């Protein structure tokens, strides 16, 4: 079956943005949960089943407004400043998503986007990402590869958030994404206990505040660190594996003033990099310029190919400038980073006083 529904409302799908103590739930744990479902009882949430619980809830959240499995949902506009359902969202890409029944196989069709970045991240029910498809093509989704009967597919398509014509061009590409699935069995959300879920979630979120980057947090089962994997499902559900996107959260603890990041011409990424600025709560704060992020594709470069990202002092019209506020902090996203970023031998420059 081929289904593609287009919805304009932003909704909670933006939770994809957007960053164990134990492995994924064991066969015995899954069987116990199945027994609980059959009996209609609430399932207590513990560190053993938290990752599955939060992932099941995310799948169900999408399906509430998508309407059913195997159906595409598209966010048609950059992250609205007055509607940010999760912290540290990005405005570099437009999102699309679907929850797909792959129990009998499915096919994903992504259009050719030329030089424009597009990726399709496949997240299974244990929050493992066994594949991220980059670029146009026809891709197979099956149980052998992804291991669970349902997967979420999170699409990111590069957009110039300040250019309505570019937004329209991305919308046209979104319309060409298709899913063909042999089965469309409804997804059933287990009856997880809310109180225990919130308790484990809060504890994981608090501990995750001490993580400076996303290394070994998202990816295949054998590639992630079990503690970071557990915490990542709380603070950044649906984050890309580090070989696809490396996230840096920077809190310089500096007062309002004039700062800059001098980014060299040869940042070792195969896609693009971006800087997004947030307030103390981790959200974009509305400003008169309407500028909240700068990236390597849409930013203005210096004569030598480098780029100066200005933070504060925007009143004089300086280029690539993002207004700042008390408690400002920023995130660096490095899409398709090369080995020197992943092994720590190359560091993205940090903010420094402009003068």
What does it look like?
The protein has 355 residues and is α+β, with helices and mostly antiparallel strands. The protein has two domains: 2-235, no CATH class; 245-353, Domain of unknown function DUF1214, C-terminal domain (Jelly Rolls, Sandwich). The chain contains seven helices and 17 strands. The protein has helices spanning 27-39, 50-66, 143-146, 164-174, 194-208, 226-235, 339-342; strands at residues 2-3, 73-74, 93-101, 106-110, 118-124, 131-134, 137-141, 150-158, 178-181, 245-250, 259-263, 273-278, 293-295, 307-311, 321-322, 329-335, 352-353. The strands form four sheets. It has a five-stranded antiparallel β-sheet with strand order 2-3-8-5-6, sandwiched between helices. A four-stranded antiparallel β-sheet has the order 1-9-4-7. A four-stranded antiparallel β-sheet has the order 10-16-12-13, with no helix packed on it. Helix 5 (194-208) crosses helix 6 (226-235). The longest helix is centred in the first third of the chain and has 17 residues, at 50-66. The radius of gyration is 20 Å and the shape is globular. Mean pLDDT is 88; it is low at 1-25.
């Amino acid at each position: 079956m081929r289904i593609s529904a287009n919805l304009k409302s932003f909704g909670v799908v933006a939770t994809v943005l957007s960053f164990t103590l134990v492995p994924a739930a064991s066969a015995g744990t899954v069987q116990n949960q199945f027994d609980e479902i059959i009996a209609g009882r609430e399932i207590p949430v513990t560190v053993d089943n938290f990752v599955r619980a939060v992932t099941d809830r995310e799948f169900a959240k999408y399906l509430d407004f998508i309407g059913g499995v195997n159906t595409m949902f598209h966010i048609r506009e950059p992250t609205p400043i007055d509607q940010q359902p999760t912290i540290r969202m990005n405005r570099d890409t437009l999102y699309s998503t679907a929850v797909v029944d792959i129990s009998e196989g499915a096919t994903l069709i992504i259009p050719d986007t030329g030089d424009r970045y597009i990726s399709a991240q496949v997240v299974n029910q244990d929050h493992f990402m066994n594949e991220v498809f980059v670029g146009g093509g026809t891709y197979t989704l099956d149980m052998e590869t992804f291991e669970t009967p349902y997967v979420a597919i999170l699409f990111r398509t590069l957009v110039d958030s300040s250019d309505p014509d570019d937004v329209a061009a991305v919308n046209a590409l979104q319309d060409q994404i298709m899913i063909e699935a042999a089965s469309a069995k409804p997804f059933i959300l287990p009856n997880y206990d809310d109180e225990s879920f919130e308790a484990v979630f809060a504890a994981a979120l608090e501990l995750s505040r001490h993580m400076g980057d996303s290394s070994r947090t998202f990816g295949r089962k054998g590639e992630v660190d079990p503690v970071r994997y557990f915490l990542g499902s709380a603070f950044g559900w649906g984050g890309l594996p580090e070989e696809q996107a490396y996230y840096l959260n920077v809190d310089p603890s500096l007062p309002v003033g004039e700062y800059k990041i001098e980014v060299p011409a040869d940042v070792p990424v195969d896609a693009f990099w971006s800087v997004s600025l947030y307030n103390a709560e981790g959200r974009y704060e509305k400003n008169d310029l309407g500028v909240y992020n700068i990236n390597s594709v849409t930013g203005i470069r210096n004569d030598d190919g480098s780029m100066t990202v200005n933070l504060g002092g925007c009143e004089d019209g300086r280029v690539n400038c993002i207004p700042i506020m008390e408690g400002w902090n920023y995130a660096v996203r490095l899409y398709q980073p090369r080995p020197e970023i992943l092994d720590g031998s190359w560091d993205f420059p940090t903010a420094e006083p402009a003068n």
